[in-house]
Give the backbone structure.
Amino acid sequence: MTYLHYSASVETIDPDEDETFRKIIDVMAGGGRITRERYGQSVRTSHAKTHGLLKGELRVLDGLPPELRQGLFAEPKAYPVIVRLAHVPGELLDDRRVSTPRGMAIKVLGVEGPKLPAHQGQVTHDFVLDTGKVFNAPTAKVFLGAITATEVATPMPEGVKGAVSMASRATNAVLNAVGLNSANLDFYGHPFNHPLTESYFTQCAVRYGDYVAKIGFFPVTYAGDALVQPFEPKDENGLRTTVVEAFRVRGTEFEVRVQLCTDLDRMPVENASTEWPEDESPYLPVARLTLPPQDAFTAARQSFVDEDLLFCPAHALAAHRPLGSIMRARMKAYEALGTARIRENGRTRREPRSIEEMPA
Ligand code: HEM
């Protein structure tokens, strides 16, 4: 198979996109002001509610073919990781009433090699992933329109959101039944899956050394597991409760797979809502993420990870530069809004240099 070679020309920069990014940051900051008033402290303006705070290891597979032996995955090596599981809204919603896509943020430590300019001198590489193979907006401009509508929903009472969720979950189930999935409906109508049975994706393209790729984390341990599926949240923090219970019993593993781009027309970089055809280029295994049994939600971890850490697509090896306008927007937004969150809470931002900094 012939894979597309990376060059700067795989991206198309819109001349007024900085203005779009600034507006996205303004809208999200507005949502942040509402939630700060509601909770008496700043929470993440997206993925506010934590379901698990974990440590583990990312092990690159031995014997990869040359096209997969790139960047972080160039050598069969093991890296310590810090993982935060969360769900999408920038609000602390009742898990029994509202079901949304979930996120997995991974900070890989001990990473040598050239980083993006703003991340030089650091030894971390972040993967900031969500459930679903594509993002619900193709471009930053479309995303701006969509979050303007969602932020309007932030002051809604939760009962109303619960109703929205039930209606759109039903519609989503119908669409799924005929093999379709609506990324937009999924925002409030995500099926009640156990977070450890989900696959998590970059959704947007990244540079993959000499190539261009999307990256996915696929569950191994809990794939189709009857122990945890179907899943009913037991209380308002039901997702966290179930993650903590699962890690008390056993650890979990995800297989990391890479889908290389073969053609920019069928696998666009500047349209994050186009699913790349897997019959043309399948997701291929490159690594394993192992999270051993542990206490998955402690006050000490909350203080360190939730308060002081910033997971950001711009925390990256140059060899894995995030690509496309959604990613370019994210690189600016996480930095601006994450730094503000930490400052407003009177905390000090930390970028770990060793896994020993993560509380046990
Ligand atoms: C233009 C599009 C997007 C914007 C502007 C955006 C913005 C943000 C912001 C501001 C935060 C909170 C940062 C903080 O306070 O630390 C955040 C968190 C997060 N976002 Fe996005 N996001 C976008 C798209 C995405 C996509 C495509 C994904 C996944 C594929 C994603 C996954 C996540 C996750 C998992 C978190 C939580 C990170 C953590 O645990 O700290 N976001 N996002």
Notes: The longest helix spans residues 17-39. Residues 172 and 185 are 6 Å apart (CA to CA). The chain has a mean pLDDT of 92.
